[in-house]
């Protein structure tokens, strides 16, 4: 903070790194009417975007409820975008939107 203030006072500029943003439905290639699913495995990561490179919001466990809106491609090897319907086993709040690997949904 002190370095930033000193640089600005001396007429310098500071480049700030862009903030990471969540990837919403813009990554979808296949839309669907809203469908409710249950998570079919334990330990599925719920992420900010489709793929392991995106930050995990939390972990989903067997029986957690997920409303599906769309996915990246055909059901095999795809990522599904949607929202949490009820507080999950690990405490993710209802209405939280994110991505889960499609094969973990029933």
UniProtKB/TrEMBL annotation:
Stretch forming the signal peptide: 1-22
Keyword list, A-Z: Signal
Domain (SH3b): residue spans on this chain: 42-106
Keyword Ligase: no
InterPro entries found in the cross-reference section: SH3-like_bac-type
Coiled-coil residue windows: none
Pfam families recorded: SH3_3 (PF08239)
Protein name: SH3b domain-containing protein
Organism ancestry: Bacteria, Bacillati, Actinomycetota, Actinomycetes, Kitasatosporales
